[in-house]
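Form 12-C: Joint structure prediction
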Amino acid sequence: MAAQLQHLGYEDEKLQRVMERLPCRDVQASMLLALMGEQCSYPSIFIYGHRATGKSHVIHTLLKELELPYATVSCVECVSVGLLFEQVLLSLFGSDSASLLSRSPSLSDFVRVYKQLCVQASAKQTRYIVLDRAELLRDMEANLLPAFLRLQELVEDNVTVILLSEIVWDKFRPNTGCFEPLLLHFPDYSKGELQQILSEDSHPSYSPELYSAFINILLGVFYSVCRDLRELRHLAALHFSKFVEPLEQGKESDTHKLWRNIEPHLKKAMQTVYLREVSSVQWEQQLQMEEKEAGVVRGLSAHAHVELPYYSKFLLIAAYLASYNPARTDKRFFLKHHGKIKKTNFLKKHEKTSNHLLGPKPFPLDRLLAIFYSVVDSRVAPTASVFCQISSLVTLQLLNQVGHDDQLDAPKYKCAVSLDFILTISRCVYPMLYCPLVTDWNHCQTPASAAL
Amino acid sequence: MCTLSRQRKGSIHELVQMILRERFCHQRLPEKPVGMESQHKHLLELLRRTAVHGESNSVLIVGPRGSGKTMLLNCVLRELLEVKDVNKNVLPVHLNGLLQTDDRIALKEITRQLNLENVVGDKVFGSFAENLAFLLEALKKGDRSSSRPVLFILDEFDLFAHHKNQTLLYNLLDVSQSAQAPVAVIGLTCRLDVLELLEKRVKSRFSHRQIHLLSSLSFIQYLDNVRSQLSLPQDFPDTKFYDEWNDSIKTLCEDQLVVDVLQSHYNSSKDFRSLQLLLMLALSRVSASKPAIKPTDLLEASRVCMVDSKANILHGLSILELCLIIAMKHLNDIYEGEPFNFQMVHNEFKKFLQRKSHSIHNFDKPVVIKAFEHLQQLELIKSMDSSTAKIQKEYQLMKLLLDHSQIMEALQKYPQCPTDVKQWAMSAFG
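Section 2 - Result
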């Protein structure tokens, strides 16, 4: 590989240094270097691959170490095109070049100013413009992406535009076509490569073998869910201190026992830190407090700590029942003496699709109140306080209002919470009668109503 | 002595790379454009009539992307400007639909390029109406004998037709029809239906002269083109290397493997640009230690060009995400392509876990939702309705943007795919 690149006129030590900083990316880096060449390169190159596969890292390392003239812009930061143009001109031509652009420059202004600056500072080597998160260019002005792809032709200068993205090129192509860039794929890391890269951040005071064993355990738990290098590094950094805790305390030194110690923590982390329910600071505090008090980790979206007034809970349960049980079954569930319900032909055909799969259905206010009165265990008068609790539930986005705001006499609602939340609430209000919910799809019945 | 020869080898190789890269990357003009002799003659004749005899004309060059419209125009202009009188007189004005997105901007650009009196340095003074009046005035004062002919070259002509009222097009074509300063309006576009985009009053002022560049190369001519593109020019300094290289290119083009590769490329697209992309990829594998293009280089380059990018992305998904995609495929098979939501997919996945799986762990619902959202971010699935308000995210209807065959192929190539997942994918009804 090094022999192949020798002809490019860069010193061997520089190339060696560059390759050391790019583990497991030799093939892609050498391909990029060969494409970039010495004097000129293809007008636009599109590099795609999953997150954290090293696209920006490889490009920036190559450009910086080999001291090539370049400008790098992340399209996330460019809320307006003027910011994009300014940053490009600043990086390529120095700090007083951006002042030549007008207040809100158009692409035409940018090209004109670029041509002027080129005349003063012509390029022997290719200039590179790197656009990161290029998928956002599609949402900016429609002419921006096609123009950048053929920038070399428009400004008549030796410039190459490199686009980096997670999304494939087929989704970028405009309707009437454009200049097709050279496509380059950065493949994902294999399990062995991930192991190799993660083992490189080993802690100085522990042996690399211990760290590799730890990484092995981590990958065993998380690899089937997540292959993102950044997430795995974050998780490794958080958990290593817990892993070596028994070693420090002098209790265990066998890897197998260490694994048994850390495994439940990793499993818990999958439900909390991995989902960003809990910040890493909270997680570390939790791990330290573990031995003193076994507390439940309070997550961001855990509805367990949302406190609702007494009647609101019943209203919400009634709303859930109204959304997920069809109206014809109300008579059966909520009246003491009911008859049999005959299934029509239509119902027999569509038995398979349960409401739990299709989502909540809208219901009118009257139905909600009817179910509410039969669900609540005491007599409730229909005062304004009950009604305004319904409005607060809508504001809390636990209920959704369907239809126009103008319909004052028959508003319709939909329940916007999941079964787990309702379970948690019903545990509070039916402490005696709580039983685990099993939903029977054919009959669309929830035993919460059966418990009444 | 050996360092000298290595240096010499290095610099020769650099020269080869530079020459060939200029051809493929910088679109250096060939001596004569290939396969478009009659179009070349037609356009040259037309422009000569404007430049030398002062006749006003308008023409549209129409052809798909990469078929050589700009190349043809630049070749014709190069030949035209070789005539002494023409070079001093003609005023070219280059406009591009991608840059000049508005008539106001376009007008300022024209004024700037013609260097009219209301331009000082770089700034154009006056409002749109004033500029337009000034320009038309300047053009009207001339006549065939005494004023300089102006060539208006409008790249991406179809984008100009989207401007408000098509003012610029109307005025330019109007000038070209009336007896004023001689102008030639040359439009280049990739849309075959460009005339449908023009308004009636604009279309009537257009001369309806179109030059079509629908590439009509036969495969033999295509192969010849490849050979001439890869060969070094006559004036190469090292004659020994020149002979070696051109001979190797000749044998390369006769190799059966190479002919097959080029045939498959020819069958998918005959245009010059995709050919240049292929040759550029092959060229990047040439180095000082390997100073020739081998058939395997072209094969490898072709493989890179023809790869399915979505298959590459599918290769990097985690097992959980792959299982979700297989669940979606089963849903598509059962319900014949009707949109699905997350709950249905999760339901299918749970059925698989209960009945058939030994190797996949039963993940919590939030973890599965995170995997689902990752697939959404990669744009492998897409929401059906754009209004995301008021429907919970588990119940939003989505559709899968992958084909049955793509998924099955990806499964074959997936690294260390558990057998129960593969069997689930291949079974008929989940």
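Section 3 - Comments
Residues 2-24 of chain B form the longest helix (23 residues). The beta strands of chain B are 57-62, 91-96, 119-120, 123-124, 150-155, 183-189, 210-212, 381-383, 398-400.
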